[in-house]
Amino acid sequence: MTGRETGSARGERFTEDQPRSSSAHRGTVQDSSNSQEPTDRRPEIVDELIVPVVAQELEVKKRTVESGRVRITKQVHERVESVAEPLVSERVVVERVAVNQVVTATPATRQEGDTLIVPVVEEVLFVEKRLVLKEELRITRIRSVEMSPPERVALRSEDVRVERVPSRDRDGE
Q: What is the DSSP string of 1-23?
């Protein structure tokens, strides 16, 4: 074809120095310079123009490509630390104190500092009946704190290292 090619929305191609036909594949071109021709006459085929119609199709394919590799290394580190923790223990000292007093009613349990005093009474038969405070129990709580002997305790921690390794596809090229 000669001249500059232009296209239409349907994919037809024409050249600018040739008139465009409205038919899709074949058209006739007539000379319109002589307008005095009778209308009952059929136009004469001067030149036949074949317009190719082209359609493009898209085909998409995918493939898996290895782009890289990684190597992961894990190391376990162990360290020993000494631990000393205070341990609390309590012991109770019971002291018996003889009182031997006559009382009219049972005395109440009482607290004096860290010492709990629990009265112990006994009924004694006399010609008359009387309460005699025979003894008191004095209970003292003694608290002590001592350090436990150091013990060796194993503690573990992990480190992870990641390094990039080239892919197999790239090694062969």
A: --S-EEE-TTS-EEETTS---SS
More confident residue, 165 or 126: 165
Contact 69, 163 (CB under 8 A): no
Query: Which whole-number Å values give the CA distances from 158 to 67, 71, 80, in the listed order?
Result: 29, 16, 15
CB atoms within 10 A of CB 27: 19
Helix or strand run (H / E) with residue 147? strand 129-147
CA 47, CA 23: separation in Å to the nearest integer? 14
pTM above 0.85, yes or no: no
**Cβ(102)–Cβ(130) below 8 Å:** yes
Query: Which strand (E) or helix (H) includes residue 170?
Result: helix 168-171
3-state secondary structure at position 169? helix
Q: What angle do CA 137, 139, 144 make, to 5 degrees?
A: 160
Indicate the helix (H) or strand (E) that contains 82. strand 69-83
Give the model confidence (pLDDT) of 44-78 as tens digits.
767 888 888 888 888 889 888 888 888 889 998 99
What is the Cα–Cα distance from 45 to 25, expressed in whole angstroms?
15
